Structure prediction request, 472 residues.
Amino acid sequence: MDHRIIDEQLDILRDKILLMGGATEAAVQRSMRSLVTRDNELASQVLEEEKAIDQMELEIDRLSVDILALQHPAARDLRFVISVAKITPILERIADHAGSIAEAALIINIEPLVKNYVDFPIMAQTAAEMLRSALDAFTNEDAQLSRQIIERDKEIDASYNRVFKQLLEMMVENPSATTGAAHLLFVAKHLERIGDYVKDICELNVYLREAAFIKHSSLN
Amino acid sequence: MNQKISISNLNFYYGKAQALYDITLEVPERQVVAFIGPSGCGKSTFLRTLNRMNDTIPIARADGEILIDGENIYAPGTDVVALRRKVGMVFQKSNPFPKSIFENVAYGIRINGIHDGKNDLSERVEKALRDAALWDEVKDRLNSSAFGLSGGQQQRLCIARALAVEPEVILMDEPASALDPIAAQKIEELIVELKKNYTIVIVTHNMQQASRVSDKTAFFMLGKLVEYGATIKMFQNPDQRLTEDYITGRFG
Prediction:
């Protein structure tokens, strides 16, 4: 059979999750740009667009359940629907973190400029790159790339530890910068969490390709 | 786990036409094995080699080996009647005899002479009907004609008839395909229940049925065994592309 009824629905599902992935990636990048360039308008825009991402999540949830209920997917089709259904809420949470970064930007941007960002742009860039690669790996069902991305989470963790230390030192040296630095600490934590979520997506990419559960691999 | 049936290098021919090619497969004891594959793939032919039902076709011929409990069922001198008592069969279309419900089940017991008296016969009939999950529905009309039963009940009656002679293996060829979903579900539940005591091999076109009831699944195509493995793996991550394409409905 050249064309199956399920193919059409799986195509729609694929389009929807890629769209949501793109929107999430944009939210992360914009939220960081709003912080680095002190652009309040951009921060507000990120917050507004969060609703659209939530809406996408809802649509993907519904479609996934419909396909499971009516088409009874098996094998790769089944793994695809399961992966999409599990990646969707992860994207939504990443978008939430982007929203929180944007909210932090709105506060930090009022405070005096904290000059010494150092690792921040690197950390933000790593997170954004990882997210984009993870979505590419999902599209291409590339398990090898996914495993490489999982390794990159260590880079973010290392950056986070450096940023944490720098910001603490800053608070001690310059008490007037404490409010700004404290908010930046939250931003660093959001980026670190995004790294963890990207890792979760990559684990699902491996499941999609190989039907292997690599999460909590010590338990298997 | 004990292997109840071991098939090695089985080839099967209808005259000059080869229907099965070099099949090697083992059926574990007290498990359900499902045979799936497109029409004409040889799955029913293969099923029927397991109790030599194909012997009734004059031009049919098998070579290779089928061991049941270690005995080669194609060895010369095999008692085919005893084999079919040990390896019972249920067909797609229920085929009760034009007799009462009781006599349908009692028939095999009588001709095989495996009862000790009237009470024993009644007990055996009741047990078979209970095992086939039919007793409660027919206990008050055992002497009525079997044709008065619904399609699903008739099929369970045929299962009771097969169980009555105390087989060890039950072969089922599309046992639920002619039934409505509720009756089919009852048959599926029955299969899962029966595997506590019997080894079951089922041929089905209904992939979800295979995935629901079986422990292992064998996929056949053009007379060849393409893949055989745990059902849970076959339906999630089969090794062969052909299997994947078949179970996801890309052909067949």
Summary: Chain A is about 85% helix and 0% strand. The helical segments of chain A are 5-36, 40-71, 75-108, 120-139, 143-173, 178-210. Chain A has a mean pLDDT of 92. The domain at 5-219 of chain A is CATH 1.20.58.220 (Methane Monooxygenase Hydroxylase; Chain G, domain 1).
